[in-house]
Amino acid sequence: MELKSYNKEIKVLESKIERLREGINNEDEQDLNNKLCELDEVKRAKELKKMELYYQAMLKLKFKGLCCEYI
Q1: Where is coiled-coil annotated (predicted)?
Q2: Do the Cβ atoms of 68 and 62 come closer than 8 Å?
């Protein structure tokens, strides 16, 4: 569920970036750079959340004796 919200936020930011690229001028260049940075931050946060969820799932499986002796 949480990953879906990241996906939605990424799509919104990508849409804003595309609109900025279409009508770019000097004033918009800084706004574009800000949106690109924001997009990178959201993508990194999504990847971290995904890794956290995978790790939690592996721990649950380990406690049930179904997975991974190395965790």
Answers
A1: 3-45
A2: yes
Coil, helix or strand for 42?
Answer: helix
Tokens of 70: 């190395």
What is the number of structural domains in the chain? 1
**pLDDT by 10s per residue, the chain, length 71:** 577 888 888 888 888 888 777 776 666 678 888 888 989 999 999 999 999 988 988 888 877 776 665 55
**Range(s) of the domain holding residue 29:** 2-63
Q: What is the pTM of this model?
A: 0.62
Residue 28, domain member (yes or no): yes
Query: What residues contact residue 60 under an 8 Å CB cut-off, 6+ apart?
Result: none
Residue 70 lies in a domain: no
